[in-house]
Specification:
This protein is 54% helix and 16% strand. With 367 residues, the protein is of the alpha/beta class.
């Protein structure tokens, strides 16, 4: 039984009782018998309770909990300090405001204190990075990052990297040094994907949120730390363009596997770390003339071709391989094609010659 369902039942009962009480009180005004008015308003209360209760109870609590979980510790600390300072400042106004006549005298001090706490918390949280840097520079100690980051390089993560998930394993290796930053607008886009009505998009979005939680739970490894930041470029609406503009503003790089974002960022001079390029770089390399075993699992696009895959996912297109369907055979590499989108190997069964002789220039592995 979900918490949403329980809240709807509880809300239905409470609103039904409140509606019945209101119906009894209003019966003389509307000229209805008390029983009929109570029943009518009770039914109306049941409807309101079923629809609205989760939106005013469970869901705001979930949003608050999610926000707290996603905020970096230094931002939470600065928010607490800012809230305390805001309350201290506004308390000075509480006494003169309490001298106002009723009802302002009792309402205004509380309202002003709440406003001061909110403004202090949001101001300090949004400027947490600058405040820590200022404290560190004045005290001549390394407080610019309270968790003692070993590298000052900043890397922004986009939505595609979180959905892909390989960034978690790469981070565990310690090869990525610096701060991995996730802007709030990227996180908002990920939540939109996770809430999509399309099942495939919804599953991809939820996978991204799971991977984000795994990243946040990782211990700092070789100077790598994951943080969610509030920085935004409000005049730009499209998320990829926001990310590129923010990277230029912060002098940061972008980790992505989005081919289009890769091109746009390169054109604007932003450093890109492409997960797909990294995966291609560490795949098994076979040069023309080498022989290796492969399992032919399907037909190719051209007549007589067979297709197999290496353990790392590299496609191997085998000339005359259709005759060896569902068999393990040895093949000889004839040429390679390397692109940003992936690597492809062309081969022939061992002992056979390719239909067309490959020019010497192809032997370099550049197709």
């Amino acid at each position: 039984m979900s918490i949403d369902f329980v809240s709807r039942i509880v809300g239905m009962v409470i609103f039904a009782l409140v509606g019945a009480r209101v119906g009894i009180d209003l019966a003389p005004l509307i000229g209805y018998p008390q029983e009929g008015s109570a029943t009518l308003f009770s039914l109306f209360g049941i409807l309101i309770g079923l629809i609205l209760t989760p939106w005013v109870t469970v869901r705001p609590f979930r949003m608050l909990r999610r926000t707290i979980n996603e905020l970096p510790i230094e931002m939470l600390l600065m928010a607490a300090v800012g809230s305390f300072i805001g309350i201290l400042i506004t308390v000075l106004l509480a006494y003169p405001l309490s001298l106002l006549g009723a009802p302002l005298g009792s309402v205004m001090p509380l309202l002003v204190c709440a406003t001061g706490a909110y403004l202090g918390a949001t101001t300090f949280a949004l400027r947490a990075r600058e405040i820590w840097a200022l404290i560190g520079s004045r005290g001549h100690i390394s407080l610019a990052n309270p968790l003692n980051m070993q590298s000052s390089r900043m890397l922004l993560l986009d939505t595609s990297v979180l959905i892909d998930g390989r960034i978690v394993e790469i981070t565990k290796t310690g090869f990525i040094g610096g701060q991995m930053l996730i802007p709030r607008f990227v996180l908002a886009e990920l939540h939109q994907v996770a809430d999509s009505s399309d099942m495939l998009r919804r599953n991809r979005g939820r996978r991204g949120l799971v991977k984000l939680n795994e990243l946040q739970r990782l211990q700092p490894n070789e100077g790598t730390m994951v943080k969610i930041i509030e920085d935004d470029i409000e005049e730009i609406s499209e998320v990829d363009n926001k990310l590129v503009a923010l990277a230029r503003q912060m002098d940061a790089g972008i980790i992505t596997n989005d081919y289009n974002l890769n091109k746009v960022a390169h054109a604007q001079g932003v450093m890109i770390l492409n997960i797909n390029l990294l995966a291609n770089a560490v795949r098994t390399i076979y040069i023309p003339g080498e022989t290796f075993p492969i399992h032919v699992i399907q037909e190719g696009r051209d007549i007589g071709q067979g297709v197999g895959y290496l353990e790392d996912g590299t496609m191997v297109v085998i000339e005359n391989g259709k005759a060896y369907m569902d068999r393990h055979i040895n093949v000889t590499v004839t040429r390679l094609i390397n692109r940003e989108t992936g690597r492809m190997i062309f081969a022939v069964p061992e002992g056979e010659k390719p239909r067309y002789q490959i020019a010497a220039s192809d032997g370099s592995g550049e197709g």
